[in-house]
Amino acid sequence: MEDQEIVYARELTLHPDEFVDVLKRSTLAERRPVNDADRIQAMCQNANLIVTARKDGKLVGVARSLTDFIYCTYLSDLAVDEGLQKQGIGKRLIRETKLHSPQAKLILLSAPAAVNYYPKIGMSQHDHCFMLDNVDDLKIAE
Q1: Is pLDDT larger for residue 137 or for residue 140?
Q2: Is the pLDDT of residue 15 over 80?
Q3: Where are the domains of the chain?
Q4: For the domain bounded by 6-137, which CATH number is listed?
């Protein structure tokens, strides 16, 4: 049987098991809470822009984002099955995500191994990003 082409679509829901499976088949699982079912469930449930890549119905790529659709879109997870990487799937997922929120600035934090990928596809690097993991680390200004 001949393989079907990859089908890209915006999906309103993402099943946690499918999400974990594609995370594991990409390199993203090592930086995501794949063993915490409640967090994964919430991540799938609370994302409001999910773009998928499917081959023969199987999820082979996902772009999971949080957006207001007008000012900013945070692309939180971009995962592509390792066996299908370097075929333009990630770039297409980014493109489809941007097309669903054309006025919004698309923002993402790169995985360390992918930091050189994004400039190659036309994204600009921003030096002014800040993160806070623990609220107790927040210092009161003097």
Answers
A1: 137
A2: yes
A3: 6-137
A4: 3.40.630.30
